[in-house]
Amino acid sequence: MIGALGFVQRNYYLTKRYFLWEVVWLLYTTGNAMTVGFIGVAVDRSTETQRLTTYLLIGALIWSYLSMLFDILAETVAWERWEGTIEYTFLSPVSRATHLIGTSVYAVIYGIVRTVIVFLIFNLFFDMEIKNANYVTAVALLAICSISLIGFGMVAAVMPLLSPEKGNQAVFIIGSVLLLVSGVYYEINVLPGWIQPLSRLSPVTYALRGIRDALLEGASISSQWHNIWPMLIMGAVMVPAGLMLFSAGERYAKRTGLLKRNG
To answer: How many domains is the chain partitioned into structurally?
Structure first.
């Protein structure tokens, strides 16, 4: 636990060091999400459009959090290479589980803080239809999805270890596929029939479905079991699988001299 908290602290200092860049990315994320919201506003100003705008903003907000969580984990190796600390970290007497869990805890804390800020900004610009929102259910679903997505991030983090040249691009591809199939800005049923089954393999699909029900309809946590159990299974499978794959990739990188190499 002390070792994991050490990685939380280190990531905090990295964020603090590059704070102005964090502000830039926050503004970029907020601007992108607000652009999606204004699509709904531009259609019409009826009550139904208010619901559409809220639907789009929820998707943009949740995706900004989940994609950031995924990216922080997936870029673990890239950050170490940028800072020139990859050899010190990977040769230190700290288990890789401690390293990745510490990074995950920081990613969740940082993501929640950033999401709250973006949500408050949304409320300044948009009249969102969230009068009956059940925030407890929404937060619970987001927390459960975070666990399962951490596993996906650990798996993606292996890519830069195996290929210093193209690993980061592979990470972006995985993120793009999750965005495509998870129904962030549209219902799953608008996708071609052969793509729709892939949405069942994404934890983001279930999180968005449940969170939208909670914020738009006030759904309770007990009514969301059909969205919760798939995410629990994915978390139970993907987190251990991610740890094992990352450890195997680390051993391969050390054996073949890929650990320090940048290209």
So the answer is: 1
Q: Which helix (H) or strand (E) holds 161?
A: helix 135-162
Instruction: Say how far apart CA 30 and CA 116 lie, in whole Å.
Output: 11
Residue 114's domain spans which residues? 2-256
User: pTM to 2 decimals?
Assistant: 0.75
> What stretches in the chain show pLDDT beneath 50?
none
Question: Which residues, 6+ apart, have CB-to-CB distance to 44 below 8 Å?
Answer: none
Cα separation, 24 vs 21, in Å, equals 5
The beta strand positions in the chain, using DSSP E, are: none
Residue from 9, 186, 211 nearest 103 by CA = 9
Residue showing tokens 């798996």: 155
Contact 181, 189 (CB under 8 A): no
Q: What angle do CA 148, 150, 155 make, to 5 degrees?
A: 105
Q: Give Cα separations from 223 to 21, 138, 187, 219 (angstroms).
A: 41, 12, 20, 7
Query: What length does the chain have?
Result: 263
In a domain, 263, yes or no: no
Query: Tokens in use for 255?
Result: 């054996």
What Cα–Cα distance (Å) separates residue 140 from each residue in 10, 78, 113? 27, 31, 16
Query: Tens digit of pLDDT for each residue in 106-157?
Result: 888 888 888 888 888 887 877 777 778 888 998 899 888 888 888 888 888 7
Cβ atoms of 26 and 118 within 8 Å: the answer is yes
Decide if 222 is inside a domain. yes
For 7-18, the DSSP string reads: HHHHHHHHHHHT
